[in-house]
Specification:
The protein has 370 residues and is α/β, with parallel strands linked by helices. The chain has 16 helices and 15 strands. It has helices at residues 9-12, 40-55, 62-73, 88-97, 114-118, 152-155, 159-164, 199-202, 216-225, 241-252, 258-273, 283-299, 307-318, 326-330, 335-345, 350-358, and strands at residues 29-30, 33-34, 78-81, 99-100, 103-107, 119-124, 129-134, 141-145, 166-169, 172-175, 181-186, 207-209, 239-240, 277-279, 323-324. The longest helix is centred in the C-terminal third of the chain and has 17 residues, at 283-299. The chain is globular and about 70 Å long.
Amino acid sequence: MEPHRRITIDEALPGGQGFTESTARGVNSYNGHKSVPLEAPAFRAASERILSAINTVIDGKAEAAKLALTVLLAQGHLLLEDVPGVGKTLLAKTLARTIDCSVSRIQFTPDLLPSDVTGVSIYNQSSRQFEFRPGAVFANIVIGDEINRASAKTQSALLECMEEHQVTVDGHSYKLGEPFMVVATQNPIEMEGTYPLPEAQRDRFMARISMGYPDKDSEIEMLETHQATSPLARVKAVVTAADVAAMIATVQQVFVSEAVKEYTVAVGRATRDSAMLRLGASPRSLLQLLRAAKATAALDGRDFVLPDDVVAVAEAVLAHRIILDRKAASSGETPQGVIRGVLARIPVSREMTEKANSGRTTAPELRPSR
């Protein structure tokens, strides 16, 4: 079957490197070179350029834009869920356009095959050997449009890609390029022609965003600026893939105190002990919660994580991973409400904040100016 999206080897891998089975990059490297963390002014300037470019296209969704950037810098994957027509795909495409790297888009449909996503081995009659043709997943930013319209078999093709950043075809593993991020959109499951994402698939998305409808002023602004042409056509890359790798390296240097780690674990264990939940937060979700908190701290100009950073991203990171008890669901409870209740029962004390602050590193890279 002809793949829906054919990409060339040079396009799939940044820097024009040839595709080989041994091609591999660490999570903190780009093109085989270790990325160097950025200084505070450079990090701040790069993040502001990305957010400004997104906000020129997506009206009235500054928080969603910041969370999308947070997930990118935390090396996670983003799930955009809402009704059709509120800008889910536009946000994903705008984020991809701001980075000078390889981008692919997959339109998930019921007839999409796993090989369309990961790639396939094709027999070359001239060389009498099987050659691997990479699929659309071989890109830095992969946009999966309406991911829940594909069957569970096709959805599962992304499991290894998202967790291990590699693809295994016919017994051979191929590393994906870095940075690597999947930005998927989905419609609510009550809509026609959708397949619910399995728990293992949802757990691989670091955060879920519900776009929601814009406010009145933003909607009027959209009608004035989006009539003739889409602002997306004017968006240019404001950072390179190497810049993003350096920003990720900067986030990884953010300090996390024992107090913040204990608070994160307390939040996760509280979800597992909740009588309203059938499935609480997994250990992987707590790890991604802490990574998102580190990226939040870096974007706020700090080189250390506060408990408030964990609180800021807890709902987006945990709500789609927990499963309500039937009684709680029938009473109208929501996963977001449960997370807010858990956070309210585990307040952030002044002592906890002081401990998080007192253990910070002495390096001034991300410390806010006085």
